[in-house]
């Protein structure tokens, strides 16, 4: 059976939370946006939420490619 769009979004949230955790990053408000889940038909979006400046810098560092020497 094919997963529903809501199940797929729940799985994506879990995968993102796990990946961020491995990078030492926590987004406390990461989850499914309830308003989009309540639509008819549901069109769930992932709510990343707000974060501190330190967390934003961690995210930026995690997304910045490094050269072969381990430097940006």
Write up this protein.
With 72 residues, this protein is mainly α. It is 46% helix and 6% strand. The chain has three helices and two strands. It has helices at 5-22, 34-37, 53-63, and strands at 31-32, 46-47. The chain has a two-stranded antiparallel ribbon with strand order 1-2. The protein starts with a helix and ends in a 9-residue tail after the last helix. The model has no long low-confidence stretch (mean pLDDT 87).
What are the defining features of this structure?
elongated
Topology:
Blueprint: H1 5-22, E1 31-32, H2 34-37, E2 46-47, H3 53-63
Antiparallel strand pairs: 1-2
Summarize the structure.
The protein has 72 residues and is mainly α.
Shape: elongated
Strand order of the largest sheet: 1-2
Strand content: 5-15%
Q: Helix/strand/pairing class, anyone?
A: mainly alpha
Could you give a short account of the major beta sheet? 2 strands, antiparallel
Report the end-to-end length measured between terminal Cα atoms: 44 Å
* Percent of residues in helices: 40-55%
Helix/strand order: HEHEH
Low-confidence stretches are none
Q: What is the number of beta strands?
A: 2
Helical segment count: 3
Mean pLDDT: 87
- The radius of gyration over CA amounts to 15 Å
